[in-house]
Every structure is written in structure tokens, then in C-alpha cells.
Amino acid sequence: MGPVTAAKILDLIGGIDALQHCTRQQLHGLNLKPAALDILLQNEPSENIENDLRWAEAPENHLIPIDDPRYPSRLKTISDAPIVLYAKGQLDVLYSLQLGMVGSRTPTPSGKETAFEFARHLAHNGFTITSGLALGIDAASHQGALAGGGQTVAVTATGLDRVYPAAHRELAQQIVTQGVMICEFPTGIRPQAQNFPRRNRIISALSIGTLVVEAAKRSGSLITARHAMEQGREVFAIPGSIHNPLARGCHTLIRQGAKLVETADDILEEVAPLIRQALHTTEFEPPKSPAKTEMQAELKLEEKHTLDDDYQKLLRCLDHSPTSIDTLVERSQLSVKSLSSMLLILELQNRIEVLPGGLYQCLK
Question: Which of 62, 213, 290, 355 has the most C-beta neighbours closer than 10 Å?
Fold first, then answer.
């Protein structure tokens, strides 16, 4: 059964623990197929479930049911949220500020380079890059995030006991070390065509917005963008030549209301108000337990917040007096565009405070 049906059943019977007390007659009223009834009523776990439990014994592997406090809150809000998440790697990355990046599996060389550079810049500025581990734009996005010293989330369409495509085994290992791989599919699930578009809703749900880099008019990336729109997330698209068939999907999205972006800073400026709003919620906070997860998150936060020369220069232009952006432009000789994204990052790092009227002051 799918996640929507499973969620309805759990709601009707009062949760997963109530299953052990249900009779066949009670479950029969839920209009389930006979095979589903047999599975739910069996006394012993199936071999497939035993395989999952053995897989979860490894220190870097995690099984996260939807009622677990570790389940990402942004994912839980969608109507067809997975009942169970399988995760492999650094679990705290799931609670970070994520941006989805998707695109063609057969991109142009410039498209692949664009995805890499956007991901590297965004990761360097505090975003976790979330994509689908596919060939082309997905792989370039993961690689760019890792090259930028940032974090990345790979949402797969197979069980996490295998890597698809096989050519990405080394990349997958890097992601497990510096990020996390997740899926909704049990161990043993091989690549199946219907599972690739299905996983796209998870990419968009986890992310504050989704960026499409090169997509044909009927690309699967447009499915991710549609999910993002339906979920109330932002959609960004990079335009291209009218003669490039891989730009047509992006142009279609822009006509439908996606934000046209030319640089990574365009995205930072666009999502700034959304991030400020999220800062006042627990939306991107890791769960209170286990303590180990909190400690790892704090360590990663310290590593990520090493500032380069331009940021140090900007901080020297600020003090505890409210300062306008025009004054900062004059003092720093940096452009308004650069300052906007830099001020956002400093706010995320709790180094500055934004005051009414578009004024800024130091916190540290």
C-alpha cells in the first residue's frame, strides 16, 4: 500500500502499536486487499522486515518512522509523507536548511558546470544541497556541495543497501561521510521506473526551494518543480538559449511563475525573507535527542562558520549602532547585491541582528 493509504489506516486504528490488537474482522472494514490483510495479521516479521532490522544495526544506518521525533518536520507536512524513512550517514544534516537542485541526466558541459558552481557557492554560504544522486545535474550538484565544504542530501529511488547508478558508489560514500542518503524504500529494492518520479516529492518537501538547471520540456525535473509548487515551496530556474532543447523546461517553469535566476546570489536574496521567518520556528532544528546528534551539529556549525576576508571586512564596518545598507556600501565598497547575501549569512550565524527599517547591528 502507498503512504496515503497507510497513513489513513494508522489514523483510523490509532497508530502502529494498535495493529497487534486488531482482528481480521476489524481490519476487513478498512477495505484492504486480502494479501495486505495477511501481512498485517501475521505473528512473525517477514524476511524482508528482518533484513531491514539487520541493516539498521549498522551505526550509520537509521530507520525513522513518521511518529519518531527524528522525522523531519518539513517532510511530515505533505499529504503523502513516507511512513518510514531509511537514512544512511549524518542524520543531523536532515534538519539543516536545504535547497533542492535537479536537472537533466544528460546536460550540456556548461549546464553541468553551472550546477557544480551554484551548489558550491550555496553550500559555502550555509545551504545543504538536496538532490537525487542521478547522472548529470544531480551528481554535479552533490559534487559542488562537497567541494564547497558543505553538506548534501541524496534522496534515492532504491533501497539504501545498493547504489544506483553503480558509477556513483564513490560519490555515495562521500555523501555518507559529509551528508546523508535517504529513501522510503526497504532494503533489496532495485531500480524501478515508477520509483524515480515518486522520490521527487521528498526532494522538494525537504527543501525551502528547488532550483532547476537544464531540463527538457518533458523532463522528470519538472515533476519535482510541480511538487514544490503544490507544497508551497519556491521554484527557481536558470534560463538558457532558445536553441537549446534542455532550456525549454526551464523556460516553461519561468512562464508558470518560477523565479528566473542568473547567479547563486539571486537565490540567496529571494529566500532571505523565508529564512528569517524559519529562524523563529523549530522547523530546521535537530531533535532534542540523542545528545550525540546535537553535539555533531554544533561541531559542524563551528566548522561552517569560518569567515573569509570579505565577511571580516563587512563585520568591521558594523558596530552596535543601527546601520543602513547604504552606509555599509559606502564603508565596505561592496555592491548591494553582495552585501544582501552576506548580511543574510551573518544573520543565520547569529553574528548580526536585523532591525526595523532595514537596519543592521552587531550581536558579537
Answer: 213
